[in-house]
């Protein structure tokens, strides 16, 4: 008998997570708080569910890392206790996994720390149904971010890098890599206001917001109108939902090529 396991990401699963993929806690060192993950077996057969804590990071080049816990400087993985970490659910059964977050009692902690609880499931196979060949089942993994903000004065800082403008069919696309180089999570919404050489504003154009943890980065895209050839001034801002506004001045050199 040969069993072929196929790992997939997505929502077409026998098991579903019911209460969101991000849990945030505002805490003090030494404090303990509990969270929970509600899981339901929506299939017609038993399913095994496993929970594991990993570190998680992402970068402006599009890469994503799933790392052993404790790999990142601002990992909170060691603070998370799963209870339980494994359960077999019958068809239609719902179960609440409880976890506890407890940062250590130390004065050196401040700002944002995070990791990810991986919820993995697979069907329980009845091997008596197969006489030979191979059986195929599927695994689905959900990544649930667990974020702890430790109270205190943490530095909030963004860095703009690699600003570029590229020609599309009837418009331009500005790309900018934004790095969180501070110690607290931010959710920037980048925008660009463009000014003609005579100082007249041609409008403000925005990208979609994206959460950035300390040490992570993302490439944002701002769609611009079809500008006539020439040089324009721009003010590139990143509004972080009332926390801070970061900005820089740029020059757009639009050619007729």
Question: What is the compact description of this entry?
Answer:
The protein has 257 residues and is mainly β. 0% of the residues lie in helices and 57% in strands. It is built from no helices and 18 strands.
Biggest sheet features = 7 strands, mixed
Q: Terminal Cα separation, in Å?
A: 63 Å
Total separate domains: 2
Number of helices: 0
Given as residue ranges, the uncertain stretches (5+ residues, pLDDT < 50) are: 1-12, 125-130
Report helical residue fraction: under 10%
Give an overview in words.
The chain has 257 residues and is mainly beta. The protein has 2 domains: 2-150, Immunoglobulin-like, CATH 2.60.40; 158-254, Immunoglobulin-like. 0% of the residues lie in helices and 57% in strands. The chain contains no helices and 18 strands. The protein has strands spanning 2-8, 15-17, 22-27, 33-41, 47-58, 64-67, 80-83, 86-89, 94-101, 111-123, 134-150, 158-167, 172-180, 189-195, 201-206, 217-224, 230-239, 245-254. The strands form 4 sheets. Strands 1, 3, 5, 6, 8, 10 and 11 form a 7-stranded mixed β-sheet that branches. Strands 2-4-9-7 form a 4-stranded antiparallel β-sheet, with no helix packed on it. It is elongated, with a radius of gyration of 24 Å. The relative contact order is 0.18. Mean pLDDT is 88; it is low at 1-12 and 125-130.
